[in-house]
Amino acid sequence: xxxxxxxxxxxxxxxxxxxxxxxxxxxxxxxxxxxxxxxxxxxxxxxxxxxxxxxxxxxxxxxxxxxxxxxxxxxxxxxxxxxxxxxxxxxxxxxxxxxxxxxxxxxxxxxxxxxxxxxxxxxxxxxxxxxxxxxxxxxxxxxxxxxxxxxxxxxxxxxxxxxxxxxxxxxxxxxxxxxxxxxxxxxxxxxxxxxxxxxxx
Length: 201
Known about the structure:
Blueprint: E1 4-8, H1 11-21, E2 25-29, E3 35-36, E4 44-47, E5 55-58, E6 61-62, H2 67-79, E7 82-85, H3 91-104, H4 121-129, H5 136-152, E8 157-160, E9 165-168, E10 172-175, E11 181-186, E12 194-200
Parallel strand pairs: 1-2, 1-7, 5-12
Antiparallel strand pairs: 3-6, 4-5, 8-9, 9-10, 10-11, 11-12
Helix pairs in contact: 3-5
């Protein structure tokens, strides 16, 4: 019988869900995010060439302290015939599944993602029957929000929640408009002020 690995976020959920699914399923927890933007260096690269004008590319690294967990999940994935990503059904959960897919070498366009809105045997078993691909619109929305948050970490800032406008001292002004576009105004540069309307690559 084929073995399926199911990855959720919470270790408490993993134990309960494993009981629902039976012996042909192994359920493990990611313990939240496994990859993030680096804290010590700038983790966002702007792509100024003509082909990728006005785009930026985040540079993710594995989170410090998660190495053993990542190694364990990779080992479990190798033993499984199928891997299903069952992280929380929200923007953060979708991004965690996307990062898991990268770490485990899973095609995000394959039917690798499941979601359920209640921890019951019926809901979990129904989700198993209806896998889907990772929703990149939700992932991009999370990435855009994370980059804005990342940009303002450690900075004195002004936030207008209604307009979605964030001012970071005199160095950077950032706002998040509808969709996944981000406008970044870079001040005090050697070439003068620059305004870049950037979209996730």
